[in-house]
Amino acid sequence: MNEILLKVENLHTSFFSDSGEVKAVRGVTLSLEEGKTLGLVGESGCGKTVTALSIMQLLPNNAKISPSSRILYKGKDLLKLSQEEMRLVRGREIAMIFQEPMTALNPVFTIGEQIREALELHSNLGKKKAMDEVVKLLELVGISEAQKRIKDYPHQLSGGMRQRVLIAMALSLNPSLLIADEPTTALDVTVQAQILELISNLQNKNKIAIILITHDLGVVAERVDFVGVMYAGAIVEYASTKDLFELPLHPYTKALLDAIPKIGGKDKKLNTLKGSVPPLTQLPKGCIFYERCVSADSKCIQAQPELIEVRKGHWAACIKI
Amino acid sequence: MKTLLKAENIVKNFPAKTGFFASGGSVIHALNGVSFTVERGETLGLVGESGCGKSTLAKIIARLITPTDGRVFFEGEDITHLKQNKLKKIRRNIQFVFQDPHASLNPQMAIIKTVSEPFIVHGLRRAKEAFSEAERILSLVGIPKEMVSRYPHEFSTGQRQRIAIARALALNPKLIIADEPIASLDVSIQAQILNLFKELKEKFNLTYIFISHDLRVIEYISDRVLVMYLGKIMEVAKNSDLYNHPIHPYTEALLSAIPIPDPAAKKKRIILKGEIPGLTKLPSGCVFHTRCRYAEPKCVEEIPALTEINGRYFACHFPL
Amino acid sequence: MFWKRFKKNKLALTGAILVFGLLVIAILAPFVSPYDPNIINMDDVLQAPGSRHILGTDDLGRDILSRMIYGTRISLSVGFVAIAIATIIGIILGSLAGYYGKLIDSLIMRLVDIMLSVPTFFLLLTIIAIVGPSIWIVMFVIGLTGWMSIARLVRAEFLTLKEREFVLAARSIGASDARIIFKHILPNAMSPVYVSFILGVAGAILMESGLSFLGFGVQPPTPSWGNILTAGREYMEVAWWLIFFPGLAILLTCLSYYILGEGIRQALDPKLKI
Known about the structure:
heterotrimer; A: alpha/beta; eight-stranded mixed beta sheet; five-stranded antiparallel beta sheet; 13 strands; about 30% helix; globular; B: alpha/beta; four-stranded antiparallel beta sheet; 11 helices
């Protein structure tokens, strides 16, 4: 058993706007061991990205994390750190890569300069040494002719290359935890396969723990050790990847799995979820999935279901199980 | 079956804008000689990665842009260079569903107006009749009557795509071209829309050209599949043939790159080397040779022609 | 949504109330003004503000308040008509340039450049010197020389909007160019035009006042804020109220239009947090 690296307890994050409070994350609890991969899966607006940004404390100004939440990283509560202390955690301890590699890079600097900046902010390598390090990093993420590439601007690279650059940047300070927010969503399938392979290889080499955020259950099945399925700001099911796909418990997880077309399954009609995600401004008293659930009955509207351990290591938030 | 649409050797070049003082004269080769047919009543799936030209091809067929070279025939009539008046008649028969329903619906128009507009543009019905007809079509795609005077921003993404589909259906077209119609939707909504496409096809005897980058979606919806890479056709085959036994190495790699939602399914994955080349300087010979694991010197020198064997088309010197 | 955001901006709300108040005064001028603005009363020459004449009287004994109330009519109608002309021209030319591009765009935009390089005020003076002063001429000339910024705005909006997919969608159902321009693109391009219209009214009022002050605009005895000022200039040292109140009216009016325009701009801009 490895050591627990990250433990998020009862995370509540809300956004405040003209139209009131939006409860984007409602009581997320999760933990991640060193060197393991946790997948957070769910549809848009389910709170997976906000969970990641809460861990990094990179939320916009109108967002607030509830004071009862705790984010323990190597035993320290990140929410109690000062801004300056948190700045040192970012990059050095926890790094993040984003969905859209173009917007995450500054268009007016060469990629070499941008990675070097990340290096220099946190270490006192000389300029020359730092640049050598940059070349080494780019080679590590599979960019050929790195010596030449460091002088390129982001727009001169393809989407896959840019994502490699961002991964190099994220890894530059040897973090123990990498949060990858839909890292391959903007990429083509063949490039997606390359990037996922790269991330796996780097993980094995550097023993990094990864939180992989995605909407693609296929990616989850292939690349992740544990999965948290999120719906409307809460984790509705949590299990090892094997358990989850073998025996999905929560009706939402089942519905998600049934909604993906499978190769060879042409003649089966896809099962669909009726309706769409309810607004997070007014929450019902009972289960938030009630209106779209096939197995719901009158008991479901009475109280919010708790996440309970149904089988060993397999948690679900549904009273019908 | 009768051929509904035929494309012959379609070529499309765009001038490339390079740098601040653009006059370099370099050209983006978006489509490089694409020929295919669409049979009445079938769904032709168009699949390929970004830059393969699938969207450009769709827009050329719908006559939203004109090709640099080549011809498009619809029901035997050459529509490539039709002028405004005659084109209007063709537009009734070829309709388009766009990828992003946030962008493709006019934000300042109530949806009933958007859906009834085709009738008014073509002078088919008076305003009042057009409205009741639009209402009927909207209810057909699952938008209830009470919601028809709302504006696009009051709907979810999935509902908006339903509205866009209703607009395409309004004129009772023969061919609907859907360009990545579910790419911007969530998984659970994707399934709803895919099923809607299937239902409507049966109900109205439609013919689809369905474009997607997702091979799982293409398999679910299409009868025949056309695989494109860098503005060229790599392979055309019946759905089951293509998925069971790909002939072109690119199809093989594409298929193996699909993540499968089943951790038990361990399979060998072909990781293509390198990146998709740029469209300004296409590779010589077979455009796929830079990434192909079977490539030989011949592939660098000679362009493989689209060949037919047993009703399957492919462009490869060394088919699998 | 717009109204909700707009209401939060107290300054802009004040501007809107002032502008609305001025409109009401202009419309109801015959009912709210205490005297006939053109009645000469030699017994009441140059009266200081007081109970009988709230804002005093001028050298011919006319009631300043009444003249200013009637002046509101002139100033506002010149402002609105002139800018309406400019807006219509601007929208038409801007739409054509933005939608069709290429040669049409070049021609229209060069015309804009040429018009912008001509100093409007002197052009106005020249034209009026040739054809003679009249309130109609002033409206038309301000309108014909003020459309360029609106044309540019509309063109810029069209350039981005015409690439949007809903325009392509309209084309794919067979909609004509005119329908696409007026039904699809224009409604989406209007928000900067509203702002520009409101700000333009303020500019036109200012210009009319300036022209009338110089004697090229509205001719006495028809009252306008500009020519009340001119008339008062000679008696400035003995009767401050002759120039103070019309000046204040011009200042406040323009100011309220500007803050209203700015408020609308902020309320329409979704990126701006209020």
